[in-house]
Amino acid sequence: MKQLYWNVCGEGDRDLVLLHGWGLNAGVWHCIIDRLAPHFRLHLVDLPGYGRSNEFGAMSLSEMAEIVLQQAPKQAIWLGWSMGGLVASQIALQHPERVSGLITVASSPCFAAHDEWPGIRPEVLAGFQQQLSEDFQRTVERFLALQTLGTESARQDARLLKAVVLQHQMPEVSVLTGGLDILRTADLREALAGCSLPFLRIYGYLDGLVPRNVASLLDSKWPHTQSVVMKGCAHAPFVSHPDEFSKLIIDFAQQNSR
Question: Which SUPFAM superfamilies does the protein's record reference (predicted)?
Answer without folding.
Answer: alpha/beta-Hydrolases (SSF53474)
